[in-house]
Specification:
The complex is a heterotrimer of chains A (about 375), B (about 280) and C (about 290). In chain A, about 75% of the residues lie in helices and about 0% in strands. Chain A is mostly helical and about 375 residues long. Chain A has one domain (about 1-265). Chain C starts with a helix and ends in a 14-residue tail after the last helix. Classes of the chains: A mainly alpha (about 375), B alpha/beta (about 280), C mainly alpha (about 290).
């Protein structure tokens, strides 16, 4: 039993290393062949994998149907941008607000100590942690009232809070801090894919370890039967809050990474629709399956950004049809999603994880071998 | 053997105008098996729900191991609607959540089985050990709690052995036959390390043979684990076999208390069960 | 006086529109316990149908056509996306509703090319009139009146007709109603038909005031109408109406005070306060979970 516990951590680290190496390879191939969409899909897919897994922790493992994801991502994205824009560029970004009130940049501060490259990276990573912590703090604040609510009321209340957060960030009086409804840009980003893979990998590994710990089991008990969980001594308020805060933390980190990927952020874009997309990824992957969420994120981004692109090109229309036009790919894509939602309700993975499937395979082949 | 484990004191539970439990008083001593019986709808499960903290009583108090754990007096709208006695005797509103009461050492099973459906037999019991965990979530996630985890898993193995479910520990809880699900619920309750075990119709849906086995099993765990048992049951064979004392509830009111022999000969109890109309 | 009136009138008007949409939410929730996230998008579709219809036919024909198409859409969505999930957990149905919303928005984007469209001027109701010296569109005055008339009709339908009785039974106890031989599927379809009809009427009034239609324009009024339904007590028809009017009026007062940024946030803040203080809303009934 003891070695098995160690294995999860070990295997996780090995997988992260392997995927980082793979991502270097993929980047090389993409550059050589000029396939820019591949990099878009991989980067965005990686960031969304974290966002989907963090939502799954709440919706899939704890059974709390929350629709506040976009709000916590927004907090993460803005925290990252505000804390990392180089001081010299602030006057340009905050052009209407005299360069804003934040007059430092965390990566620059660290660059001063550790040199440009190392210090910059340390600063960026530390800022990501701050993104998570701030989102977690707001998660706690919001959780205090809303976690008393049940199922659909919880959904609508969290959705409401996400909208409130968006309104406040755009509020004129906070503009020296948030740049109001203007774009935040020119902050440092990771050029390569592998830093995204490493950070997201570590975060997901953390979630996997948590889900398989005694706390994760308590979350699942709450999801399966709240009344029984409470009767068996699991404090509902405490555990729901814990799950909510942890999910917000990772949504905040994911928001910071999303800001990096997008290279400019504006509060306007973090709408309910964004939360819906992430929820649909979770559903496609299988509610309650982490590997499912990861696979679904790449598939989702792949389909919406790349593989279905040809459907948007009017030049591809067969015969005299005028079906293919911009936007058609999203229609086809949403029909796919509806088919999954209606007829494959368990998603790609159901509640299973990838190792479970491998194990089942192994058992099957063993049995077959024995049968022969 | 005279130490008081549970004391229900003047408890009334009223939903709007309906009085489900009316001024109930009962005591359970260390090591006893006490049964609460009564016709359907008499308020037995409601009494359990008050004791375990699911409902807050309208009036009255509950003591556990010499400590007052629940207390309430009619509040808000209830102040006018309350029809019971002893209204002025209680002043605090002490209402811990069920998990806090479980942590004090009281565990229950449910009339309509409430196992965690997506979990295995083993995990169902293991999850119940969570309330005795001392690690925080960070050290649990980083696997710094191996010793504790190990000990808990060991205890779960022992409990499954005790209830005779070791051979099916890897199966989904809901795939078990009914009788075994009931045993699993008991194992799960025992995992919280209770001093008082509350069983809500543990033999419901069982055939006579299974009921007989269950009877022996309850006596066995009582002596092995030094438990006190409080149970609700309709199977009179089981009740008469193992109970030290019996309380009879009818329309929310306790109408009799005594040993199995006394209860069997009590005219009021016989009337209640045979349905002699009170206004006749 | 003029100032107060010029804030209050549009408030009452918008409130009436919210009320009409909120009825769709509250009736569906009453029977299926489902937040129909797609309802706001059905409302938007009604806006687009009207936009395209007037390019091909006179307004007198376009209005009934829009109503017919919207009602058909509501009916179809229920049959295709909700009916197959009748025995599924509530969360699945809610996800399906979100999926439908996603599909409808993408579909509208595809058809319109994502450009906001100018809503056609409906003669007479879009005319400017003067009320106590305040210039306003006639629709502002018509909305509350029409809303009240429609609601009275709806209440009569529910109180006096057989299908109305079936609806009341189904919202009280779905399973028992089914056992009593009520054709539950036709009751549910009827609910969606009525809800979509009211959303279509709401769209004429709403877009006559706001004049542009875009694929996501219905999300906000949809959510606000839902808040109105919760505020009034979900499942309650008078609740939805009172909630709609209160939210519409408050929103316009906040705009009038110069805090228009916060008019959306206010609605949600109100929702959270209501859920916190009285989760059942103004006229809602309490539901207990049995242990």
């Amino acid at each position: 039993m003891e070695t098995k516990r160690n294995k999860t951590i070990l295997w996780g680290l090995v997988l992260i290393a392997a995927f980082s190496a793979l991502s270097l390879g993929a980047e090389g191939i993409a550059e050589a062949t000029g396939q820019t969409l591949l990099m878009t899909v991989l980067k965005k897919g990686t960031v969304y994998a974290l966002l989907a897994v963090s939502m799954n922790l709440l919706n899939g493992f704890t059974g709390l149907f929350s629709l506040g994801q976009a709000g916590f991502m927004l907090i993460g994205a803005y925290t990252y941008a505000i804390l990392t824009i180089p001081v010299a560029k602030r006057a340009g970004v905050y052009q209407y607000y005299d360069g804003g009130i934040v007059q430092f940049s965390i990566p620059e501060t660290f660059s001063g100590v550790f040199g440009d490259l190392v210090g910059g990276v340390i600063g960026m990573v530390i800022t990501l942690v701050i993104c998570g912590l701030l989102a977690a703090f707001f998660g706690w604040l919001i959780g205090l009232p809303v976690l008393r609510l049940k199922s659909d009321y919880l959904a609508i209340a969290t959705l409401g809070f996400a909208e409130i957060i968006r309104t406040f960030i755009q509020y004129e009086s906070f503009a020296p801090l948030t740049n109001g409804s203007n774009t935040l840009r020119q902050y440092p980003t990771f050029k390569h894919l592998y830093p995204y893979v490493i950070i997201v990998g570590l975060c997901i590994l953390g979630i996997v370890l948590l889900v398989n710990s005694t706390y994760g089991r308590a979350f699942k008990a709450i999801r399966d039967d709240e009344i029984a969980a409470e009767a068996m001594g699991i404090n509902l308020a405490k555990h729901k809050m814990l799950s909510f805060i942890i999910s917000s933390f990772f949504a905040g980190v994911g928001g910071g990474l999303l800001a990096m990927y997008m290279s400019s952020v504006q509060a306007k874009g973090f709408t309910v629709a964004m939360t819906y997309e992430i929820l649909l990824m979770v559903v496609i992957g299988g509610i309650g399956s982490i590997s499912g969420s990861i696979i679904a994120s790449y598939l989702f981004i792949g389909c919406s950004e790349w593989w279905l692109r040809f459907l948007d090109d009017p030049g591809n229309n067969p015969g005299g049809l005028k079906l293919l036009a911009p936007g058609f790919r999203m229609v086809v894509f949403s029909i796919f999603i509806m088919i999954v939602v209606l007829f494959f309700r368990k998603g790609i993975m159901g509640e299973r994880e990838f190792p479970d499937i491998l194990r089942q395979r192994a058992k099957k082949t063993k049995k077959e071998a024995a049968g022969k | 053997m005279s130490e008081n484990v549970l004391k229900v004191e003047n408890v009334t539970m009223q939903f709007g105008g309906v009085v489900a439990v009316d001024n109930m008083n009962l005591e359970i001593n260390q090591g006893e098996i006490v049964a609460l019986i009564g016709p359907n709808g008499a308020g037995k499960t409601t009494a359990f729900n008050v004791v375990t903290g699911v409902y807050q009583p309208t009036n009255g108090a509950v003591w556990f191991q010499g400590e007052k754990i629940v207390e309430n007096h009619p509040q808000g709208k209830m102040r006018q609607q309350y029809k019971g006695q002893h209204a002025g005797e209680y002043s605090r509103a002490l209402a811990p959540t069920p998990d806090a009461i479980t942590k004090l050492g009281m565990a229950r099973t449910f009339q309509n089985i409430r196992l965690w459906k997506s979990q295995t037999v083993f995990d169902n019991v293991l999850i119940a050990k969570h309330c005795r965990t001392h690690t925080n979530f960070l050290s649990a996630a980083l696997r710094l709690n191996r010793k504790e985890e190990q000990a808990q898993r060991q205890h779960v193995e022992e409990l499954l052995e005790l209830v005779g479910l070791s051979d099916v520990k890897g199966e989904l809880a809901t795939s078990l036959p009914y009788g075994k699900q009931r045993r699993l619920e008991i194992a799960r309750a025992l995992a919280t390390e209770p001093k008082l075990l509350l069983l809500d119709e543990p033999a419901a849906g069982m055939n006579p043979q299974e009921t007989g086995e269950l009877t022996a099993f309850i006596s066995e765990i009582r002596s092995k684990l030094g438990l006190t048992v409080f149970l609700i049951e309709h199977h009179m064979d089981l009740v008469m076999d193992i109970s030290d004392r019996i309380y009879v509830l009818d329309f929310g009111r306790l109408i009799a208390e005594g040993t199995p022999a006394e209860i069997q000969n009590n005219q009021r109890v016989i009337d209640a069960y045979l349905g002699v109309a009170e206004d006749a | 006086m003029v100032q107060i009136l010029s804030t209050l009138l549009p408030g009452i008007s918008v409130g009436g529109q919210y009320a009409l949409i909120a009825l769709g939410y509250t009736m569906v929730y009453g029977i299926l316990r489902l937040i129909n996230f797609a309802h706001g998008d059905i409302f938007t579709v009604a806006g687009f149908v009207m936009f395209y219809a007037v390019t091909a036919m006179p307004v007198q024909l376009a209005i009934p056509l829009t109503i017919a198409v919207t009602v058909l859409l509501g009916f179809t969505v229920e049959r295709l996306a909700y009916k197959p999930l009748r025995s599924a957990p509530r969360m699945s149905v809610m996800i399906s509703a979100i999926g439908v919303s996603y599909l409808l928005q993408n579909l509208m984007w595809y058809i319109t090319g994502g450009q906001p469209q100018q809503y056609p001027v409906i003669p007479w109701i879009s005319d400017s009139i003067s009320v106590f010296g305040t210039e306003t569109k006639r629709v502002t005055i018509i909305t509350p009146i029409l809303t009240i008339v429609l609601i009275l009709a709806l209440v009569t339908l529910i109180k006096k007709t057989r299908i109305g009785m079936a609806m009341r039974a189904a919202s009280r106890d779905f399973e028992t109603a089914r056992l009593m031989g009520i054709k539950i599927n036709s009751v549910i379809s009827m609910t969606f038909v009525i809800g979509s009809f009211l959303a279509a009427v709401g769209s004429f009034l709403f877009f006559s005031n706001y004049s542009t239609v875009s694929p996501t324009v219905g999300t906000m009024p949809g959510l606000k109408a839902f808040v109105a339904a919760v505020f009034g007590g979900i499942g309650s028809i008078p609740g939805a109406v009172v909630g709609g009017f209160i939210i519409g009026i408050c929103e316009n007062i906040i705009r009038g005070l110069g805090y228009s940024t916060f008019s959306d946030a206010f609605t949600f803040a109100l929702l959270i306060v209501v859920l916190f203080v009285k989760p059942t809303g103004l006229f809602g009934e309490k539901l207990e979970e049995k242990v």
